[in-house]
Amino acid sequence: YGRCVGGNLHALLSDTCPIMPSETILIIQLMHHGDVLLATAAADALKQAKPDCAVDMLVYKGMEDIVADNPLIRRVLTVDRNWKKQGVGYQLRQEYALLREIRAQGYDVVLNYSDRWRAGLAADAHFGLAAAGRRACHRAQSASAFAVESARCQIGARADGGFGCRPRVVAAEVGATGLDGSGLVLLHPGSRWFFKCWPSENTAQIVQRLIDGGRAVVLTAAPDAREHEMLEAVRRQVVPSEDAPLFVLDGTLNLRELAAAIEGAELFVGVDSVPMHIAAALDKPQVALFGPTRLENWRPYSERATVVWAGDYGELPHPDQIDTRDERSLLTAIPTEAVWQAVEGRLGG
């Protein structure tokens, strides 16, 4: 029998709808890197409940790096958003080939964490669901963080407040980063949406305090012109030391190499973006700065994270009223001292 669950891991793992050990499961997440990483929490929950089940993922081309070599994931299927640039005929042939490939896998269960039309189409084509079923498949039950929350509730939070399961990522070899040594503090101040970022002068003050305290600092950024400008603005305001150097890795690391750099650092400091979720998946101590996004959904899923929320220091717009094209920082209310205290707390003073 085939079942499509619109992101509802509770229903899938409930006693009334048990999965068999040999079942194959497809997780659909056609969103961004952070969403794909969070969806691996569902795979973690499934493998804990039924270690012999096989879990595949369907993601956008370019997102597969975040789940590469993940032992929870058997196979990664991809959708290339550039198909449409090759003409309608080419796109239709590729879409049809993908649907045939999905159907050929004979999945017993589909977990849909995406509201993209392809996600519903893939589930429909695979199971041939009735109209009511199709509507359930065409939308995710909730945001990607629902995968983490439902997985955590199903497996059970630990008595100490920790997480029974969480997102997972496999880092590249440490040597791929070009960094050597321990005690580093890594800061990734950028995000694909600049309203999530902290002002560069505040970041520079934290970097300078770390250097003045004798700690080496690594600054990283995505290969993006705006993030490059942000890192340059920070670097111009910092005076490095021979004893505490400043390393700048500006768009030079892929995501798995970034994961290796985070894993090798003593502390990660960043904002609401995929590097923060990578740090949480690696269970790395971190300080995460948040603005008007939904903190209850997108916080780092790790008990080793300290969250500094702008809403504790000033008014924030409602998350539903955010214009993602707004390049103003909405974290300006966060004082430098609050972040520094969080950093010192995670570094043990």
Tell me about this structure.
The protein has 349 residues and is an alpha/beta fold. Helix content is 36%, strand content 15%. The protein has 12 helices and 11 strands. Helix 11 links the parallel strand 10 and strand 11. The relative contact order is 0.13. Residues 128-144 and 153-161 have low confidence and may be disordered.
Features:
349 residues, alpha/beta, six-stranded parallel β-sheet, 12 helices
Gist?
The protein is α/β, with parallel strands linked by helices and 349 residues long. Helices cover 36% and strands 15% of the residues. The strands form two sheets. A six-stranded parallel sheet has the order 8-7-6-9-10-11, with helices on both faces.
Shape: globular
What are the segments in which pLDDT stays under 50 over at least 5 consecutive residues? 128-144, 153-161
Question: Averaging pLDDT over every residue, what do you get?
Answer: 82
| End-to-end gap | 57 Å
Helix content: 25-40%
Q: Strand tally, please? A: 11
Question: Compute the gyration radius: what is it?
Answer: 21 Å
Please give the largest β-sheet.
Answer: 6 strands, parallel
Query: How many helical stretches?
Result: 12
For the largest beta sheet, what order do the strands appear in spatially? 8-7-6-9-10-11
β-strand amount: 15-25%
Structural class, please? alpha/beta
Order of helices and strands: EHEHEEHEHHHEHEHEHEHEHEH
